[in-house]
């Protein structure tokens, strides 16, 4: 009987940790932050693509990470810039991604 109880509690604890690890990594804010204005630097070369800045969650809010020039990874052709998306109760940041 003790072994069954132990197995049940162990399984329950593992399930709780699994579910807790599956939560969404997107944070909702009531108002979307204002993007700071800055001058885009010149491209370092012909094979570079401008990557717009991103919003990164730190502690209790988003902070802005400035854009930069990047070289496309092998096999990648188009970069879709990150953007704010309206959700129930506010806004979430959808990060940029590469598309084939």
The gist of it:
This protein is an alpha+beta fold and 100 residues long. Helices cover 20% and strands 34% of the residues.
Structure overview:
There is one protein chain. The protein has 100 residues and is α+β, with helices and mostly antiparallel strands. The protein has a domain at 44-100. It is built from one helix and eight strands, in the order αββββββββ. The protein is extended.
List the helices and strands and how they pair.
Blueprint: H1 2-21, E1 48-51, E2 54-58, E3 61-65, E4 68-71, E5 78-80, E6 83-87, E7 90-94, E8 97-99
Antiparallel strand pairs: 1-4, 2-3, 5-8, 6-7
How confident overall, as mean pLDDT? Answer: 78
Judged by helices, strands and strand pairing, the structural class is alpha+beta
Global outline: extended
Distance between the termini: 56 Å
Low-confidence runs: 14-24
The main β sheet shows up as:
2 strands, antiparallel
How many H/I helical runs? 1
Total count of strands: 8
Order of helices and strands: HEEEEEEEE
* Strand composition percent: 25-35%
Radius of gyration: 21 Å
| Largest beta sheet: strand ordering | 1-4
Helix content: 10-25%
């Amino acid at each position: 009987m003790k072994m069954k109880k132990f197995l049940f509690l162990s399984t329950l604890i593992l399930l709780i940790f699994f579910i807790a690890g599956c939560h969404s990594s997107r944070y909702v804010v009531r108002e979307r932050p204002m993007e700071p204005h800055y001058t885009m630097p010149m491209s370092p070369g012909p094979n570079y693509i401008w990557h717009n800045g991103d919003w990164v969650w730190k502690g209790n809010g988003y902070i802005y990470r400035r854009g930069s020039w990047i070289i496309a990874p092998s096999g990648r052709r188009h970069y879709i810039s990150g953007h704010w998306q309206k959700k129930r109760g506010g806004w979430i940041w959808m990060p940029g991604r590469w598309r084939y």
